[in-house]
Q: What sequence folds into this?
């Protein structure tokens, strides 16, 4: 019989997202800190990095047409 995890699956990621939301812009360094602080898996960290890239694309103004 296996022992259930102390933190339910997905809860660490939710906590990390809540923490990041209060920290300002999501930089790779900040995401790495969150990953260490909340003991995220490499998959969860990569998910956050992809989300941060998506935020950056949304923040950029559209290119002007000539």
A:
């Amino acid at each position: 019989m296996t022992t259930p995890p102390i933190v339910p699956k997905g809860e660490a990621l939710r906590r990390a997202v809540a923490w990041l939301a209060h920290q300002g812009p999501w930089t790779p360094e900040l995401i790495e800190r969150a990953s260490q602080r909340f003991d995220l898996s490499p998959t969860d960290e990569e998910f956050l990095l992809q989300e941060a890239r998506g935020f950056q694309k949304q923040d950029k103004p559209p290119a002007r047409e000539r």
The mean pLDDT is 83. Residues 11-54 form one domain. The first helix runs from residue 11 to 21.
